[in-house]
Amino acid sequence: MNVEQAAKQLEALGSPTRLEVYRTLVRAGHAGMPVGRLQEKLGIPASTLSHHLHRLILTGLVTQERQATTLISRANYEAMNALLGFMADECCADAACETGTTDAAA
């Protein structure tokens, strides 16, 4: 993952409504959730949900699949894990090495 892609995904999650949509899909697991059920669960208008899902799909955080007449939305766990990894991979990389002991002089 590169910085630009991470920034786009984080920007997409920066909306409280989109974050709620995404968290709901993450909680739904790999089976995902029909769009109609997602709309009912969140209590938002269909057009609003469509707009927010579109932004999440464009960044790769959500996928959709049509099953007969039902549109299923799913969190893309691979993308989620890549974003989380990107954020954590270099944690403390520039920090001084710690020995696990405290220095009384510090």
From TrEMBL:
<dbReference type="GO" id="GO:0003677">
    <property type="term" value="F:DNA binding"/>
</dbReference>
<dbReference type="InterPro" id="IPR011991">
    <property type="entry name" value="ArsR-like_HTH"/>
</dbReference>
<dbReference type="InterPro" id="IPR051011">
    <property type="entry name" value="Metal_resp_trans_reg"/>
</dbReference>
<keyword id="KW-0805">Transcription regulation</keyword>
<dbReference type="Pfam" id="PF12840">
    <property type="entry name" value="HTH_20"/>
</dbReference>
<dbReference type="GO" id="GO:0003700">
    <property type="term" value="F:DNA-binding transcription factor activity"/>
</dbReference>
<keyword id="KW-0804">Transcription</keyword>
<dbReference type="InterPro" id="IPR036390">
    <property type="entry name" value="WH_DNA-bd_sf"/>
</dbReference>
<protein>
    <submittedName>
        <fullName>Helix-turn-helix transcriptional regulator</fullName>
    </submittedName>
</protein>
<feature type="domain" description="HTH arsR-type">
    <location>
        <begin position="1"/>
        <end position="95"/>
    </location>
</feature>
<dbReference type="InterPro" id="IPR001845">
    <property type="entry name" value="HTH_ArsR_DNA-bd_dom"/>
</dbReference>
<keyword id="KW-0238">DNA-binding</keyword>
<dbReference type="InterPro" id="IPR036388">
    <property type="entry name" value="WH-like_DNA-bd_sf"/>
</dbReference>
